[in-house]
Design a protein that fits this description.
The protein is an alpha+beta fold. The chain has 20 helices and 25 strands. α3 (about 70-100) packs parallel to α16.
Length: about 750
């Protein structure tokens, strides 16, 4: 908006995908009101369409400016609103429901997502197949013939296998009677292994996971960085077909000097390139292509590995197909038929640049003709068992998601990353996704209540509707209302049905009443409540069947068995460690704010009770030196290393070390209106002048306290903290500063001057 003020026209250079189109209209909403008004029908809004950040592409985009696509932006708006509404409703309900019943869920958030949950469903479906698999025994007849004295050839049985031991033994007995194997036929056929299609996002993510060992989210981040640095074209594309006017030779020439593939590239340029195979044209961006040369030193690590693959793939698409000669020899040993196959490469083609696709080297087959006889060296029966499928790899999961229309090329990595972060699956060796106990029971629960919540069918149908919005063939409001109505009904059915279907959770997880250890007393029944340490940590009263949330990422302990004057609950003390801050809280007030000016999740250091000895009213000293709304509150548990901490941000002020007692006085400073502090020192350790042991004064203004106050920051957020005189040991006197009083802290008139005065 600042940049757009007073401009005559705007050219939108956002990413050229649906999400980028959506941001175009967010930009327009911000800048059009402050731009100069157009004269008559003069056009003022332009859209640049580009696929890479190169001189040619940028100049071409500038010479062919278009208009932003409103329909594509609306399809993104619809997807965002649907995912947010549906995800929030289900996530909030099931998180609160399960955390109120079970203590060892292994996750602080039991999330649901219209794409995330079907993604998890694929992983659990494979897990169920593995668990229900029953191995079967089968038998295979293996024969070896000796075409020469010191060589043998292993033959494959044409029947492949049989599942009946007696039948297999019969075939063995019959074939053992024959001493020679007769050649029934010899066939030679030239075959072709096609070069790959041009590279799109899904294929890149598959290869990155399967071959390079990179997670989809990580691979996408690296690809985006390579794109913004100008090394590759836009990495989000569904297209596998190059447009007719694409400069393939120009891209290939860029790679002519790289030592890894210079020989192959120069040979292609001199002999002529092959036109890439005709793939799918989704109408979005050209396939992912290297746009300029790079070295391993430039990109380093994973960046180079991904760039190398993209480049090799591109060179392969314009190379020749791999050609090989396949020889098949059919043998008969008695009445049974056997076969052996050999392959000899005649033209390696694209496999020179992608050697992992090359035809494996095999033993050469003997030269023979129909009717030739070879002595049988060995015939034996092998007993084997059918094996279960393995857990899904990320590459296989990406394939399933693409096949069923779950997510887009841009969002697929996010959905996979989400189910890992939520502790629904773990990534095992070979980047295989193994569902956790929590992921398994959730999916089984969805199947029991409403299978469509986890099956890909309904989301696939929604994605089709969203694509129709993007094409201008469906109405945004109608699709939104219809889909929300369906999920609203499903949500209500889910809520009504869940109570009777949670037996599957009880088998896997412990009820809250059987979890945790007794900590503090409930103010209602005066029995001990149990502290559940598993995230999210909380207190549970099994007698009242109530659960109380607690602050996270710290330790909780009983606070001197003191009680809240409002509800008689025993207070607990939350601490982030000796270097951090700590404060007491009432479990009931923390979840049910007692005063209008309080919010849920506030401890005693933010409580405005006028007389409670633990409240902000009694322990607040002055306005925070860092944030706008915070108040520095005395930590009465911190002695002898006394400190006060902001009740909003991470500022901690250490003061009066080794003092015997520190109290907040009801009186205030005349200069800055902060509360005065009464300090008692032991005579042997008193730093006060004249061997005094007691002093009352302002922490910020009193010269006696000047060297006894030290400011610490858990996070330095203000520019003035980065160096210069603003740092100076963090000690403060604060003479032009107005930190504010305890109950109603006043803002300083000039915050920058006040902060400067504090630090200087």
């Amino acid at each position: 908006q600042v940049e757009g003020r007073g401009c005559d026209c705007i050219v939108l250079w956002l990413d050229c995908d649906k999400e980028g189109e959506n941001i175009c209209f967010e930009v327009l909403d911000a800048v059009l009101p402050v731009m100069n008004k157009p004269r008559g029908t003069e056009r003022t809004v332009y859209r640049a369409k580009f696929s890479s950040i190169t001189d040619t592409d940028i100049c071409n985009a500038m010479n062919h400016l278009g208009e932003p696509n409103r329909n594509e932006a609306l399809s993104v708006d619809a997807r965002q609103e649907l995912d947010l509404r549906i995800g929030c409703a289900f996530t909030r309900f099931q998180t609160k429901y399960f955390q109120g019943k079970y203590g060892n869920l292994d996750s602080s958030l039991i999330s649901f997502g219209p794409c995330q949950t079907p993604t998890l469903g694929f992983c659990v479906e494979r897990h169920d197949k593995i668990q229900s698999f029953k191995p079967e025994t089968y038998w295979v007849l293996q024969a070896k013939v000796n075409p020469e004295k010191e060589s043998s050839l292993t033959l494959d049985w044409d029947r492949v296998r049989v599942f009946d031991r007696e039948v297999a033994q019969m075939f063995l007995n019959i074939t053992k009677m024959a001493k020679e194997a007769k050649v029934e036929s010899v066939s030679k056929k030239e075959k072709v292994k096609q070069r790959p299609l041009a590279l799109n996002t899904v294929e890149m993510l598959r290869v990155a996971s399967a071959a390079l060992g990179m997670g989809p989210q990580h691979a996408m981040q690296i690809a985006e960085r390579l794109y913004t640095q100008g090394y590759i074209s836009y990495p989000r594309t569904e297209t596998t077909h190059y447009p007719e006017n694409f400069d393939l030779k120009g891209c290939l020439r860029q790679q002519a000097n790289n030592p890894y593939w210079a020989e192959t590239v120069n040979a292609l340029l001199s002999e002529g390139i092959n036109r890439p195979r005709k793939g799918h044209d989704a109408g979005d961006h050209p396939p992912i292509t290297p746009m300029r040369a790079a070295t391993e030193a430039e990109l380093g690590g994973d960046g180079w590995r991904l760039y190398e693959y993209i480049t090799r793939h591109f060179i392969a698409t314009v190379s020749a197909d791999c050609k090989y000669l396949q020889t098949t020899i059919a043998f008969s040993i008695g009445p049974e038929r056997f076969t052996c196959v050999g392959k000899v490469v005649t033209s390696p083609g694209f496999t020179e640049i992608m050697p992992w696709h090359s035809i494996p080297l095999e033993e050469s087959l003997p030269h023979c003709e129909k009717g030739d006889l070879f002595p049988v060296g060995e015939i034996k029966l092998l007993e084997k068992q059918t094996s279960p499928p393995d857990y899904l790899t990320e590459a296989e999961l990406i394939t399933l998601m693409e096949k069923h229309g779950i997510g887009t090329d841009a969002s697929i990595p996010v959905h996979i990353n989400n189910i890992c972060q939520r502790n629904y699956v773990t990534v095992e060796s070979g980047r295989r996704l193994k569902p956790t106990n929590l992921g398994i029971v959730l999916v089984h629960g969805y199947y029991k209540i409403d299978a469509e919540l986890v099956l890909p069918t309904i989301r696939s149908a929604v994605e089709k509707q969203l694509n129709l919005i993007a094409l201008g063939k469906a109405n945004y409001h109608q699709v939104l209302e219809h889909t929300l109505d369906i999920f609203k009904r499903k949500f209500h059915y889910f809520v009504d049905s869940i109570a009777g279907k949670t037996f599957y959770m009880q088998i896997s997880f412990s009820p809250l009443a059987a979890t945790g250890k007794p900590l503090s007393r409930c103010g209602k029944c005066h029995r001990f409540m149990k502290y559940i340490q598993a995230k999210p940590s909380r207190l549970h009263c099994s007698h009242c069947d109530d659960t109380y949330s607690l602050p996270q990422n710290g330790t909780i302990k009983l606070y001197k068995e003191l009680r809240c004057p409002l509800d008689d609950f025993e207070l607990v003390l939350w601490s982030s460690g000796s270097r951090g801050k700590s404060y007491p809280l009432c479990p009931y007030c923390y979840n049910h704010p007692p005063f209008r000016d309080m919010k849920k999740g506030m401890g005693c250091n933010e409580c405005t009770h006028p007389t409670c000895q633990h409240s902000l009213s009694m322990l607040g000293i002055g306005q925070c030196v860092e944030c706008e709304n915070g108040v520095l509150v005395l930590d009465s548990t911190s002695g002898p290393k006394w400190k006060m901490a902001c009740n909003k941000c991470n500022v901690v002020v250490h003061f009066f070390e080794n003092a015997h007692k520190v109290r907040v006085s009801p009186e205030t400073c005349d200069l800055c209106e902060a509360a005065l502090v009464d300090v008692d020192f032991n005579k042997a350790k008193s730093p006060l002048p004249g061997d005094e042991t007691q002093h009352s004064g302002c922490v910020f203004c009193d010269p006696v306290f000047q060297d006894l106050v030290e400011l610490k920051h858990a996070a330095m957020r203000h520019p003035m903290h980065r160096g210069g005189q603003g740092k100076r040991q963090g000690r403060g006197r604060g003479k032009g500063r107005r930190p504010g009083g305890r109950l109603n802290p006043k803002k300083p008139k000039d915050k920058m001057a006040a902060l400067a005065a504090y630090f200087v």
